[in-house]
Amino acid sequence: MTEAPAYDTTSFVDLIDAFRDLQETLCLVAPPPAATLELTAAVADVTKRLKEFEAPEGHRVARDREMGSDVHPMLVKYEATDTSDTSLAGTVTFNHAHMGGGGAVHGGVIPMLFDDLLGMFVSRRGQPNSRTAFLNVNYRSVTPVLRALRVDARIEKIEGRKTFVTGTISDGYLVCAEAEALFVRLLPGQP
Ligand SMILES: CCCCCCCCCCCC(=O)SCCNC(=O)CCNC(=O)[C@H](O)C(C)(C)COP(=O)(O)OP(=O)(O)OC[C@H]1O[C@@H](n2cnc3c(N)ncnc32)[C@H](O)[C@@H]1OP(=O)(O)O
Questions:
Q1: Nearest CA to ligand 1 atom 27
Q2: How close is the Cα of 35 to the center of ligand 1, in Å?
Q3: Domain 76-185 is in which class?
Q4: Which of 48, 123, 151, 170 has the fewest CB atoms within 10 Å of its CB?
């Protein structure tokens, strides 16, 4: 029998959302030194409190497989609205924490979203326990922050352990970025 997790995922999602809010707010402020010192101590207190709940790998909420990016502080949150066996459509809204400059999403954040989006989709509809072998991203036009954008993923073909997948981020009819990737299913015992 599988042991029920000791945590409550819904309230943890609230904690992660509060953290995302903190991250974004950090990107928007210019506090004076005294306030910065005070805030640093407050954040250190929160970290100290969280450390009381450290858990071994496999028991940490941030890696809850069912919840995906919702429970991970680094990953970009997206919503899948329509999935079939070979395709996924959804939405993503990047915020100020994801901005590189000039209202554009940072060029490193976009591959992170694709790796997670495509990797999760491959795990659920292709071959579970796969790892990214390559991920090629083309930046076709500026990816704006603070707008609901469309994401698409498609499994192109599966050959043995290999799943070939593509993805796009679009702003209306405009393609902002596109990706093609290969995920390779790990062999039993492969680290
Ligand atoms: C439910 C929610 C879950 C939740 C799931 C979580 C979702 C998030 C997913 C995130 C995934 C990651 O970021 S993973 C982290 C980033 N990736 C990595 O660290 C991977 C590092 N690389 C590796 O570990 C390895 O190179 C592997 C596992 C990818 C492949 O090694 P291998 O197992 O020894 O296999 P190997 O024989 O080399 O290759 C197998 C086949 O793939 C081909 N192949 C391998 N690499 C490449 C390549 N770069 N380009 C072209 N082809 C390649 C080979 O030619 C071969 O084809 P043929 O001769 O058979 O035709």
A1: 133
A2: 47
A3: alpha beta
A4: 48
